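quick one, two chains, predict together pls
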Amino acid sequence: MDACGLIVEYNPFHNGHLHHLVEAKKESSASCMIAVMSGNFLQRGEPAIIDKFHRTRAALAGGIDIVLELPFVYAVQSSDLFAKGSVQTLNEIGVSSICFGSESGTTSNFTSSYEIFKEKETIFQAELRKNLHKGLSFPDASKHAYEQIGLTSDEMDLSQPNNILGFSYIKEILDHDLAIKAFTVKRTKSGYHDQTISSTIASATSIRKQLLQEGHITEHSASTFPNSTKQQLTDYYHKTAVWHNWEQYFSLLQYRVMTMDHNEIAAIHGVDEGLEYRIKKTAKHAQSLYEWVDAIKTKRYTWTRIQRVFVHILTNTKKEHIQLIKTNESVPYVRLLGMTKQGQAYLNQQKKAMNVPLVSQLTHHNSPLLISEEKASNAYYSILKPSLRRDFIKQEIGPPIII
Amino acid sequence: MDACGLIVEYNPFHNGHLHHLVEAKKESSASCMIAVMSGNFLQRGEPAIIDKFHRTRAALAGGIDIVLELPFVYAVQSSDLFAKGSVQTLNEIGVSSICFGSESGTTSNFTSSYEIFKEKETIFQAELRKNLHKGLSFPDASKHAYEQIGLTSDEMDLSQPNNILGFSYIKEILDHDLAIKAFTVKRTKSGYHDQTISSTIASATSIRKQLLQEGHITEHSASTFPNSTKQQLTDYYHKTAVWHNWEQYFSLLQYRVMTMDHNEIAAIHGVDEGLEYRIKKTAKHAQSLYEWVDAIKTKRYTWTRIQRVFVHILTNTKKEHIQLIKTNESVPYVRLLGMTKQGQAYLNQQKKAMNVPLVSQLTHHNSPLLISEEKASNAYYSILKPSLRRDFIKQEIGPPIII
């Protein structure tokens, strides 16, 4: 049985993802579709609107056969580490292909760009360093560096967010010579960052924004995502009376920062160049998370970067916790969140050949990554009522979801 | 102008304190009465029901001339460090006498006990260690050790809480040969720990308990404390809709512990002998602070000890933060919270002769103790609404209260 991996930061809100899935099935002709999904915190440095278990159910009901968790330490990261975690997870589970969405939509452009990049990598790195030194943010600095080596052309524009991610996947595969075929499908209609729902294929950001603003599923937003998602959103809200968003964590985070010393903030992953002083100084004046991020933001520190740092403070993720994954070649385990019967058959076929353990529960902490996972999960649920908190955390030690 | 110091953990709820003040004035014939008061967290490891600034106003309105803050790092401690901080603070401000309440009520019994203690200190220490080794709690272990050297007799029963504190004051004075005369007045009617209001001189514990249970000031509880206190309690509640108690901090503390590694909990002051495992293990099951403490409690770990550890986790107070005060002979500064005109005159007279700075605002952090003070204050107010939190924290950088 062949499997194809989807490295969307799997967010089941999205008719676009269904479209992507259909395309991926067609292109790969694989009989098992595997999604690597971020856990409770997303790449852009935000809590997921509903937890990973409910999103897993939505993904399985929507046509995915196996849902794997992208370990927390890879999830809330810039594209390189995010790609490393996702691609290596899919490689360990033995997929023969991966399919990713991109603005480009042409697979060959990615591979030819990789060759150009490899050839001119020294120039790229020097430009990148120079730009960072000038005080540019990482996205701006790398955009200009790509410009310098001709990778922001119409064929391959590496200033587009999904192209950047896709390029990182390709890089991970080719750098490590993995036996995975990669192909891309074109992102249709709405871009990654669009904030208004403009068609039935809307960006996850815009849907999330509308849901949180309206506080319920409007007819309009309902048309943009599958029924399986609607059901899980409703179910989660029914149980918890919560759809997670950053503002709900504001008091916790402010309390935390205001009881930390500067050197403790500086030990948190992502806090560099004296950012700890800026975070601490602005903490006491902020009356909301939005105000706080806005007060910290500069040309160098983007909104996304600050949000990621906030996730790492909230979850107590230190530089030392991340160091490990920078040096490791692959992921230390593969975590199974859920599967269908078809997925189960695939796993039975693959399990023996795997080089790393297939983990479903957090009970046995053999890996420091699982400890980080547990802390992230504890932080995520901390805004629920005490009794719910306990029950939802228990999901982490339950069996995988099977539908 | 002569000053007399009151080392009550000044809690202005208490008609007993008024009585104590009257007695102290009479006995000392001093014209300036100075109280050393715990800040926002009390010796027993609990948040104060209203903040230190409102309690300062109550104390000044109730007849105290100067209110000094016992630094946080000394306040939530067993009697030795608590006594060191309070006595040394009063010594630095130049009091000629101190007056403390005790079950004994006879000053000469304290001094003669000190002599017996000094003579038999080696036996005492050996007994104490032996008892601790057996697994007894510190209070039980020292009680039995005092028994061994004959200091639990009717004349001087060092198993009584106020006698223990008083004895620690005397020890601090005589060990350091301070030019302070000490005398004691008998604690009337209600003991330190009494939980029901049985007379108009009630224990602070029982009053606090009734206030929190009833949620308002009943006629019955009103009769047990001065009008100045009643006014500040009402005022604080009117502004914040909060009377502080541990349960309000439960979610914060649980979140905190559940995102800490074992070694981080072990670094917190008061966490010894593997207590970190017990704290962490019980965290996920607890649905209230009461339940949590109850789950941790053993013969060795008393309720008070666990509550103190909880204060230190909440405020992020590590062993290294406390190490400093263990080795220092005296306090590094004296913090002024409030004064009357009379108090101001006394301070003008004393200021030049002082060996340590007289501090009123937290703006200039010259001392690590002030950083701990700030963190404790931030943690204390973290349960208020964001706008109130900011305003109340600002009091820390305001001028002292003058009435």
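The interface with chain A takes residues 250-252, 254-256, 258-261, 264, 284-288, 314-316, 371, 375, 378-379, 382, 386-387, 389-390, 393 of chain B (CB under 8 Å).
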